[in-house]
Structures are given as C-alpha cells and as structure tokens.
Amino acid sequence: MEDIYKTVEGVSEGVYKEKGSKFIARAYHVKSEDEIKETLQLLRKEFYDARHHCYAWRIDARNEKIRSNDDGEPSGSAGKPILNQLYSFELFDVLVVVIRYFGGTKLGVSGLINAYKTSTREALNNAVIVNKEIRDLYLIEFEYPLMNKVMRVIKEEGLTIKEQQYDNLCLIKLEIKLSTINKSTNRLSRIVGVKLKKL
Fold first, then answer.
1. Quick check: 23 and 17 in contact, CB under 8 A?
2. Domains in the chain: ranges and CATH
3. Over the stretch 133-168, which tens digit does the pLDDT of each residue have?
4. Cα-flanking dihedrals φ and ψ of residue 84, to 5°?
5. Which end of the chain has fewer CB atoms at under 10 Å, N or C?
6. Nearest alpha carbon to residue 160 among 127, 138, 189
7. CB 9 within 8 A of CB 29
8. What is the model's pTM?
9. Nearest-CA neighbor of 184 among 148, 151, 157, 149?
10. Separation of CA 140 from chain center
11. SS in 3 state form for 71-89?
12. Radius of gyration of the chain (CA)
C-alpha cells in the first residue's frame, strides 16, 4: 500500500471577486473532525458579517473521510466545487472554507460553481504542499539486556523513535511506515522477550 500522501502546511488564502461578491478561501491543515469544528467556529466569529461559510474537507489518507457543505448556497454550487479541488490537488488532511460576501447581484449556479472553484484553487496554489508518510505507532517493552538486539532492528529498518524510557524494563514508542510494518514488526517480535503492542 502507498504510504505517502500530500497535504498542506499552515494556512493559505485565495480571493476571487465577481459582480461585487467577494469569495475568500482559506486552506488549513487539519487532522480530526474536532479540529475542523473549532476552525469553522473561529472563522464564523472572524467573518461574522459574511453571508456564507461554505466548506469541504478530506482527512485520513488510509480510511478516507470527506464532507462538503453549501451553507445556504444552491445545492452543489459551493461545497462540491471546493471538494473537487481537494481531489484534483490530491490532498488529504485539508479543510478549505470559502467565505462569501454578497455583492447584490446573483451569479447563478454556474457563476457560483466557478467562484468557489477558482477561489479554492487560488488558496491551494498559494499553499505549501508537502509529502507525509502514513505511519502506525507501536510500543515495545523489553528488559535491558535485549537493548542491542532491539536497537539493531530499529536502525536497520529505519524506524522512528518517538519516546523512550530505559530502566530495568525498557519502553520505546516507535513510528513505523505502512509499507514496512509487517517486516519490521515480525523482526521485533521474533526477539524472545520483546512485547509489541499497536497503539
């Protein structure tokens, strides 16, 4: 399975204007639905006088979750075009919110689709796009005399140590790439006296 996915770093913005209406798109790196809710609440406070806060998000490269919301715009004219841009940029763990200030002239459904699509694309073009790896977290427990054997596997497999505690009983939290999980965990669990647990 592919263990690399693309996401954005930080926050980026794109602006599109049409017939007096202003569309401000903001793209955020997000990891959870709670984080998404918080971001939406903050934006509603910041742009309290805007007519619409339309959005789409796509998270979790392994078990994809998506949602889009038209927030009062005609069905399919706002959330969908935002989400389609996330697909075309092949991004995960990203929320895009487009804040619309109404300029008095209706744009029609095709005009709205274009405005939400263009402002989103602008925000994503301005974003810092990075590659991330899908990783699982494991805890290994072992007694101190096994340290050399364990560390050899960690080094040879290129595993990332997140936390470590060395005493009579040693605890190490490891991040393991999706593509190497089977090989790495097999090697570690073959060491007699090592306990391995997925977190």
1. yes
2. 4-132 (3.30.230.30), 134-198 (3.30.70.1150)
3. 888 899 999 999 999 999 999 999 989 999 999 888
4. -60, -30
5. N
6. 138
7. yes
8. 0.78
9. 157
10. 27
11. CCCCCCCCHHHHHHHHHHC
12. 23
Identify the sign of the CA torsion 16, 18, 20, 21.
Answer: negative
97: which residues sit within 8 A by CB, 6+ positions away?
25, 26, 28, 39, 40, 43, 53, 54, 55
Taking the C-alpha atoms of residue 43 and residue 55, their distance in angstroms, rounded to an integer, is: 11
Q: Which residue, among 56, 58, 57, 89, has the nearest Cα to 73 in the 3D structure?
A: 56
Q: Distance (Å, rounded) from C-alpha 11 to C-alpha 26? A: 7
Instruction: Give residue 37's identity as a one-letter amino acid code.
Output: K
Give the strands of the sheet with 160-165, arranged side by side: 160-165, 169-177, 135-143, 195-198
pLDDT in tens, 48-81: 999 999 999 999 988 899 999 999 999 999 999 9
